[in-house]
Amino acid sequence: MLNGVLFFPVTPFDSNGEVDYRRLAEHIDRGVAAGPGGVFVACGTGEFHALGLEEFGKIVQCAVDTVAGRVPVFAGAGGSLVQAREFAASAKAHGANGILLLPPYLVTMPPAGLVEYARTVAQTTDLPLIVYNRGNAVFDEVSAVEVAQLPTVIGFKDGTGDLDNVARIVIAVKDALAGSGKEFLFFNGLPTAEITQQAYRSIGVTLYSSATFAFAPELALAFYNSLENDNAELTEALLREFFHPLVRLRNKVPGYAVSLVKHGVTMEGLDAGPVRAPLVPLTPEHQVELERITAAGRAVLAGSLAANATA
After folding, report:
1. How far apart are alpha carbons 124 and 51 in whole angstroms?
2. Does the model's pTM come out above 0.85?
3. pLDDT, tens digit, for every residue of 165-174?
4. How far apart are CA 221 and CA 241, in angstroms?
5. I want to staple 143 with a disulfide (CB 3.0 to 4.6 A). Which of 111, 158, 217, 301 is the partner?
6. Cα(292)–Cα(311) distance, rounded to whole angstroms?
7. Up-side HSE of residue 204: CA atoms within 13 Å toward CB?
8. CB neighbours of 253 closer than 8 A, spacing ≥ 6?
9. HEC letters along the chain
10. Are the beta carbons of 9 and 31 closer than 8 angstroms?
11. pLDDT at residue 311 in the model
12. Cα 162 vs. chain centroid, distance in angstroms?
């Protein structure tokens, strides 16, 4: 099962906009060596929305081959019902250990329709499946319980930030599964999840996505460990100097939740290439700002390590 910091790789593209599988393998290998609890490939940070089915399969295969069983590999699936089933089948065929079910394309739906969407995709494959509560795919307590009881659904990921609804869903699902023996996972899936993780932990959601891990794994791991060890001083310092400034920068341009991470990977010495339209790259000014923010985060971590060494 999944634990610790979860790694969401970017999808590197070459100068022609094609997937660069060599750099993808290097990116994933570096990330796994840093010690995540799992790899989620071709998901939001990996620009799932911009991928074709054939290159998706090759991306999943590249990830599976590179990870080589060190941690679980989950792959994204979503879009129309037909597309979601095709991507889920491809993930299975190329060796993924599980699926993150992304929201259906565009349409607004009642919770009952969302349950049927998840049920139909789950019938495509026997892979473990995590449903994503985000955007136009919003569960309520009843629908979340119904989906959680599907045999292969193992988790619920929230990207809405509606803690009222999520807190009720967590309790309702736990109550419904009590005595069943089924282990069920809850994830914080908000962009830059670290800034909300203290609140999510308080309602029983201990796992989260870390986009930061893709380019600054030492900061992502330091934050995770500071929470786990109740190191309030380091937690607050990392939030103040790194994560909050990162979110302020992210919010300046729609789509920067991906573009920032992709430039961060390039900034750290592995050219991840451009983002695909409709996303846009960082401006030169914002590239400099990301470098400054990352340096500030590392200065906080260095200070903490030095203090511990002399304690």
Report:
1. 20
2. yes
3. 999 999 999 9
4. 16
5. 111
6. 29
7. 14
8. 259, 280, 286
9. CCCCCEECCCCCECCCCCECHHHHHHHHHHHHHHCCCEEEECCCCCCHHHCCHHHHHHHHHHHHHHHCCCCCEEEEECCCHHHHHHHHHHHHHCCCCEEEECCCCCCCCCHHHHHHHHHHHHCCCCCCEEEEEECCECCCHHHHHHHHCCCCEEEEEECCCCHHHHHHHHHHHHHHHCCCCCCCEEEECCCCHHHHHHHHHHCCCCEEEECHHHCCHHHHHHHHHHHHCCCHHHHHHHHHHHHHHHHHHHCCCCCHHHHHHHHHHHHCCCCCCCCCCCCCCCCHHHHHHHHHHHHHHHHHHHHHHHHHHHC
10. yes
11. 66
12. 18
Q: Are 91 and 77 in contact (CB under 8 A)?
A: yes
Q: Is the pLDDT of residue 151 over 90?
A: yes
Q: Which pLDDT does position 305 carry in this prediction?
A: 84
CB 280 within 8 A of CB 255: yes
Cis amide linkage into residue 278, ω under 30° from 0: yes
Please tell me the distance from the alpha carbon of residue 135 to that of residue 158, in angstroms, as a whole number: 10
- Choose among 46, 66, 75, 7: nearest CA to 216: 7
The residues, ordered by sequence, that sit 6+ positions from 148 with a Cβ below 8 Å of its Cβ are 156, 173, 176, 177, 184
Return d(Cα 115, Cα 130) in angstroms, integer. Answer: 13
Q: Which two tokens stand for residue 276?
A: 């695909």
Distance CA(228)–CA(244), nearest Å, equals 20
Distances (CA, A) of 34 to 23, 28, 213, 217: 17, 10, 9, 7
pLDDT for 106 equals 80
Q: What is the mean pLDDT of residues 124-136?
A: 95
